[in-house]
Design goal:
The complex is a heterodimer of chains A (107) and B (116). By secondary structure, chain A is mainly beta. Helices cover 0% and strands 62% of the residues of chain A. Chain A has strands spanning 4-7, 10-14, 19-25, 31-37, 43-49, 52-56, 59-64, 69-74, 83-91, 94-97, 101-106. In chain A, the strands form two sheets. In chain A, strands 2, 4, 5, 9, 10 and 11 form a six-stranded mixed β-sheet that branches. In chain A, strand 7 (59-64) and strand 8 form a beta hairpin. The termini of chain A are far apart. With 116 residues, chain B is mainly beta. Chain B contains no helices and eleven strands. In chain B, strands 2, 4, 5, 6, 9, 10 and 11 form a seven-stranded mixed β-sheet that branches. The termini of chain B are far apart. The chains are: A mainly beta (107), B mainly beta (116). The A-B interface holds A 9, 30-31, 33, 40-45, 48, 50, 86, 88, 90, 92-95, 97-100 and B 31, 33, 35, 40-43, 45, 48, 50, 88, 90, 92, 94, 96-97, 100, 102-110, 112.
């Protein structure tokens, strides 16, 4: 069972490109997270959304509750954006995670 | 800032050894979680605890046990380590689900366990 599906699984981009990562979920949620994980393991939350759109610097996250879909956009991508991006949803007392998108941005 | 601290970042253990992974959080969170992360599989829930001495099995509890004797500490125990338990283990904490603040989850830095 995959409550959260992410695509693509791997993504390579040239520096400066616009990047989109997609997330679909099948459970009722109270919130959706976009998480970032750099090599070495630590995970940080980039965004928490329950509706609409949020922007932080070059990162934009959107969510469509009716369609159960969210996107993470990175504008003007940079090599330091290279990381694994994970979509996670909160349903009840539990968190459900996508398998992650491994992003590599080439200079 | 919320801090979730995992005591060991890198461990190498022999097959059959008993392994303890410790996690401490400093924000008085009721909920604590242990996940393992493997390539292509994402984060899979091993156990979670919603209060002291309370625990529930996650998706992959086999071969693991947990202990929560104090609110701030959640321990993962591998009674007899096996090579298929080589993985990255992540601890996390949050407030209860009914609290909007409980929508936020905080992770530790992860523990890389190799069983040889």
């Amino acid at each position: 069972k995959n409550e959260v599906e992410q695509s693509p699984q791997n993504l390579t981009a040239q520096e400066g490109e616009f990047i989109t990562i997609n997330c679909s979920y099948s459970v009722g949620i109270s919130a959706l997270h976009w998480l970032q994980q750099h090599p070495g393991g630590g995970i940080v939350s980039l965004f928490m959304l329950s509706s609409g759109k949020k922007k932080h610097g070059r990162l934009i996250a959107t969510i469509n509750i009716q369609e159960k879909h969210s996107s993470l956009h990175i504008t003007a991508s940079h090599p330091r954006d290279s990381a694994v991006y994970i979509c996670a949803v909160k349903g009840g007392n539990q968190f459900y995670f996508g398998t992650g998108t491994s992003l590599t941005v080439i200079p | 800032d919320v801090k979730v601290t995992q005591s060991s970042r890198y461990l190498v253990k022999r097959t059959g050894e008993k392994v303890f992974l410790e996690c401490v959080q400093d924000m008085d969170h009721e909920n604590m979680f242990w996940y393992r992360q493997d390539p292509g599989l994402g984060l899979r829930l091993i156990y979670f605890s919603y209060d002291v001495k309370m625990k529930e099995k996650g998706d992959i509890p086999e071969g693991y046990s947990v202990s929560r004797e104090k609110k701030e500490r959640f321990s993962l125990i591998l009674e007899s380590a096996s090579t298929n338990q080589t993985s990255m283990y992540l601890c996390a904490s949050s407030l209860p689900g009914g609290d909007p603040s409980g929508n936020t989850i905080y992770f530790g830095e992860g523990s890389w366990l190799t069983v040889v």
